[in-house]
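User: quick one - fold this with zinc ion bound?
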Amino acid sequence: RDPWGYGNEDGPDAWHKDYPIAQGNRQSPIDIIPEEAVHDASLSPIFLSYDYCNSINIYNNGHSVIVEFDDTDDRTVIRGGPLDNAYRLKQFHFHWGGKGNHGSEHTVRGKTYASELHLVHWNAAKYKTFGEAAAGPDGLAVIAIFLEKGDEHRGLHKITDAFYMVKFKGSVADFKGFNPKILLPNSLVYWTYPGSLTTPPLHESVTWIVLKEPITVSEKQMGRFRMLLISGEEEDDRTRMENNFRPPQPLKGRKVRASSN
Ligand SMILES: NS(=O)(=O)c1ccc(C(=O)NCC(F)(F)F)cc1
Ligand SMILES: [Zn+2]
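Assistant: Sure. Structure tokens for the protein plus zinc ion:
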């Protein structure tokens, strides 16, 4: 398959050529319009059991920077909300812009944020492997958290301080003992809707849980994201990793539900 990216030739508008599902009926991200979200009192709160969470490594795959977790048991799971069972944390990663306040994937009444954090979980109760879950209609649950430009976020320092180790595409480094609980905002009030991976292969396998309350990140911290490269160490070009976000996709009749607490 042709390599995909976020440039003019290989960007989101071209993905449908290799991944026709890009024009499917439950694609992500979307623009969330709070007034049109259905308030669903039956939506229970989201429970994150992240206490025994342990990260393994941090790596640069040329599209984003990813922190991976040990998902060999149910030590780090989310449950409740729109989910029928526990989903295991596999990895988290970010999407971000260049300078300014664009860079998020989901938008709220057209408002964009500087970045968006995705905590990716998979339905290990129903699927044997992450790869299988990623292709199943109820295989993944991703918690999206907006990063708004403002004061620095003390919990992000450990991550941005590790970026020098994974500057180049394909680089990986040990990154143990990081618990993403510290990246959560105060409130777990959320919107939820059925969607897809926001990067190829764009599988329509994601139950999205988008938290309403953003966390803040400083311009200095965002600058650290933009020192990451999409180029490999052996390549001549040094292309910065930035604007690695897909724009909002058509809702196609889907309902966005809002939690009450
Ligand atoms: N940006 S996102 O929607 O959270 C997102 C989350 C996970 C993946 C992913 O694991 N792709 C590899 C796979 F599963 F084999 F397809 C891609 C995108
Ligand atoms: Zn993502």
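One thing worth noting: The radius of gyration is 17 Å.
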